[in-house]
Amino acid sequence: MMLIFKRLFFLLILICAFLPTSALAAGNVGVFTVGSTEYLINGQAYSMDVAPFIQDGRTFVPVRYAAVVMGVPEEYIAFDSGEISLTEGNKVVKLKYGSNLMEVNGVSINMDVNVLIVEGRTMLPVRWVGMALGADVAWDGRNQTVIIAEAGYYPGGIKSTGKVAPVTYTSEENEKKDYGWVYNGQYYTWHVEIPVTLLDYDREINKLIEEFYGSSGYEQHSILSKATDDEKEIILSLTTSGNYAAWAEEETNSQYAGFLADRLAEQSVKDGYDYFQTAEFVQSFVGGAIPYIFTDKPLLPAQTLVDNGDCKDKSILMAAILRNMGYKVALLYIPPPPGQSVGHMAVGIAFTDDQLPQGRKLSFYTNEEIKYYFAETTQPNWKIGETIDSTLRKNGYVYLIE
Fold first, then answer.
1. Residue 396 located in a structural domain
2. Which of 32, 128, 310, 371 has the fewest CB atoms nearer than 10 Å to its CB?
3. pLDDT band of 11, cuts 50, 70, 90
């Protein structure tokens, strides 16, 4: 039994530990709304003591809060004798009350507006601070919002904001999460509630697996005799090479993933996305809104929403959502290349030729003459058909989600 447990742990390590930590960091996105003292950083709401406003055709925001979104630590935002100093890396930006001069590393820049003081807060058109600190700043006139993002992090920049209809409950205790991510130049936010009873169930499955693989043969037989069919498949899946289809198919989590699928599908229709783009929209949520964190064994979809996860966990979640949207999907397990010790997991999505975008070269795996197009889930900005490594498509296993 100890030998089986060791083999199980080894398989999990192969599937998950594949990216350097530096590749997993996502840029901040901040959203400021005219007239509102609430602002967002990566989908999370925070409060300010003064609201952005429009004056002479320019949108003014509090410099302190905008600087934090742009990566300036609060301890490096200084106010002294009417002068504001912002230090980010090797860049120092200085502003002065009532002056139109901005100094960047000792070089003076003439702005077309003076620094203002409103209710004790320093206010400035955010585009000037963004220019100095190297951030992308966009104005969404329809929603009266200013969007700030790390320069160049989101290809094409961010042009507008969107709010996905929330998933809420009124009759039971819930875990509440707010997400933010970018797709097609739009910054989306989403409030999602996850029933605590479902989370408790998911976490109990993890405990059951630990108990099973740490038990004698007699005890294992007893555990399986009490388990549901779904639970048996989940437990025994860990003896295979990356076949975690049962985790995406588990009934209670699949039902919940259906609620997520409905909301994302509604937003996709609202924004005019086609069949391919809708799947990519789901990919952008899983890759961009849920942080990557290594886990030693798979997680069920609802737990990944709350506790985050790595390639296997996020792939299971994405597959469960797309399955509920009617897509034919699979989990793609890629064993370690020769000379390496780590492998990878992603999602495969079936499309017909007429559903594919024109002019893009897309990587895929074939199973029974059906092409399953590669969908990375670990971090933001991936598109369907893009792979992290060209060698990944040479070898791999396609595990269909039924």
1. yes
2. 371
3. very low
* Co-location of 81 and 207 in the same domain: no
Residue 101 in domain: yes
Tens digits of per-residue pLDDT, 25-52?
A: 357 899 999 999 999 998 889 999 999 9
How many domains in the chain?
A: 2
**Domain match, 224 and 140 both:** no
Contacts of 329 (CB under 8 A, 6+ apart): 248, 319, 322, 323, 347, 348, 349, 350, 372, 400, 401
Task: Tell me how many degrees the CA angle 184-245-199 measures, rounded to the nearest 5.
Answer: 80
Full-model pTM: 0.85
CATH number, residue 44: 3.30.457.10
DSSP-derived secondary structure for 247-298: HHH-HHHHHHHHHHHHHHHHHHHHTT--HHHHHHHHHHHHHHHS-B---SS-
Distances (CA, A) of 143 to 36, 333, 359, 400: 12, 42, 33, 41
Give yes or no for a contact between 17 and 4, defined as CB atoms under 8 angstroms apart: no
Helix boundaries (H) for 140-195: none
**In whole angstroms, what is the distance from residue 272 CA to residue 274 CA?**
7
* Residues 80 and 112 reside in one and the same domain: yes
